[in-house]
Write a structure and sequence with these properties.
7-stranded mixed beta sheet, single chain, globular, about 120 residues
Length: about 120
Amino acid sequence: VQLQAFGGGLVQAGGSLRLSCAASGRPFSRYAMAWFRQAPGKEREFVAAISWSGGTAYYTDSVKGRFTISRENAKNMAHLQMNSLKPEDTAVYYCAVKLEGPTRVKTEYDDWGQGTQVTVSS
């Protein structure tokens, strides 16, 4: 699956952004999908994941209640709505897919997008 993440940008603390991930190449609906992020000098970390049906979603604790992951299988798209953004959310955000169920483990994901930069100013 080829993935392209977009929608990043510069936003003030407390603001919102909506990231999107466009998939192509294989039936997107077969795959669980996740967002990860990587801040400068840090490891890539899990943010959120969603099952192929959209019925199950996981979030890392630091974004619970602020971020919402969703998907539109008919459009081969997934989204990450980010509200109440904080400076510590600043990172490059990556979308990724895997067969079977969603997990929090980055090494279990097979295909990755190129990343989109999110910068939150204080």
